[in-house]
Design brief:
Helix content: 55-70%
Number of helices: 19
Number of strands: 2
Radius of gyration: 20 Å
Strand order of the largest sheet: 1-2
Shape: globular
Order of helices and strands: HHHHHHHHHHHHHHHHHHEEH
Length: 358
């Protein structure tokens, strides 16, 4: 237990280096306007906005139920809750073996820290806990599978559909029917709860599925993915692509052969989304999980072989960079004009210490 806690702490420290120094935390576009939606819920119990992001009601309802009226407190709440979920991710990947820290070098971390306010970190954490129960624990706990899949759907029904579909293809053949029996009805229950939560606050805008019917959404998405296909693939894996390729070549496990269909599913869902690299990166999490799990089973006896792959993963991230596609290829967050989280933390600490220190 002590050694696991030390490993989790080390992973979390590493994730903070990547998130703060290499990528940088930023809030999603128009985050202040999103807080006005929360104030509407607190004051009137209804929302006036038709923003499709309300299709993820937990992002708004939890801060509203906590009564967070102050905008700066709301932003700090988002930052700290994001880091709590990041810690849970580190906790879960620590069970994957001695090289599991390399999971942090996958593409999912970039949108999770660039798009604070969209709840991607929560989606990744729930996905890891869910896939652990399905693959590592062989679906022994039906109640955990139900809870994690339900929360996935309530949090983001569209991403949940792609993730659950991908995990279905990674499931053992003899367990697929049990997977369907639990997850299929759970998806409909979660979707109903999602709709009900939005209805309770009077949201009458377009959800994510109907948003696809807006003029130009699908055609623009297809144009972007056609033009930037290589960059999108790289941005989803980042340096982890080296580990994936090596594992795919040297592993004789049937699990690695199953990862190709989830990759195709991820590409298909990404092709109808304007948040191109963001969606692809998050949908790839099950593939990264399986690859990480199978990589640690490879028996590389040569010292240089054991160390050159982790070095290559890390070096690729640092040298090539993010190549994140959001309209076009970006090396840094597109939301640098939004409130700066570090300024907020310093301002808040100063207000606390003003009555203590001179």
């Amino acid at each position: 237990m002590k050694s696991k806690l030390a490993r989790v702490s080390t992973y979390f420290f590493l994730s903070q280096i990547l998130a703060n120094i290499v990528y940088g935390y930023t809030f999603v576009q128009n985050i202040v306007l999103k807080h006005s939606v929360i104030n509407d819920i607190i004051n009137d119990g209804t929302v006036n906005s038709k923003d499709f992001s309300i299709d993820s009601p937990l992002n708004y309802l939890i801060p509203a139920y906590l009564g967070i009226k102050n905008n700066e407190i709301f932003l700090l709440f988002l930052f700290f809750i994001t880091n709590i979920f990041l810690f849970l991710i580190c906790y879960k990947i620590a069970e994957l073996g001695k090289h599991s820290y390399l999971f942090l070098f996958g593409g999912w971390l970039v949108p999770s820290v660039w798009f604070i306010g969209y709840g991607d970190m929560l989606t990744v954490a729930l996905t890891l806990f869910f896939i652990h129960e399905v693959i590592k624990n062989d679906q022994k706990s039906k109640i955990k599978i139900f809870i994690f899949s339900l929360l996935l759907v309530v949090n983001h029904s569209a991403l949940a559909l792609g993730l659950l579909l991908s995990i279905f293809f990674l499931t053992k053949n003899e367990r697929k029917f049990q997977f369907i029996k639990i997850v299929l009805p759970t998806y409909f229950i979660g979707y109903f709860i999602n709709q009900q939560l939005k209805s309770n606050v009077g949201f009458d805008g377009r959800g994510r599925f109907r948003f696809l019917l807006n003029e130009g959404v699908v055609s623009n998405s297809l144009e972007i993915i056609t033009k930037e296909f290589i960059n999108i693939i790289y941005s989803g894996f980042l340096g982890f692509i080296i580990l994936f390729i090596v594992t795919a070549i040297f592993s004789d496990s049937s699990m690695m052969k199953k990862t190709y269909i989830p990759i195709l599913i991820s590409i298909a869902f990404t092709s109808i989304s304007l948040d191109t690299s963001r969606i692809f990166s998050v949908l790839l999490v099950p593939v990264l999980y399986v690859s990480m799990n199978e990589y640690d089973k490879l028996n590389f006896k040569n010292y240089w072989t054991q160390n050159i792959i982790p070095f290559g993963v890390i070096a690729t991230n640092l040298i090539i960079g993010t190549q994140h596609v959001y309209g076009y290829v970006r090396e840094k967050s597109p939301f640098t004009e939004e409130p700066n989280v570090y300024d907020l933390i310093i301002k808040y600490m100063d207000s606390i210490l003003s009555g203590v220190l001179a």
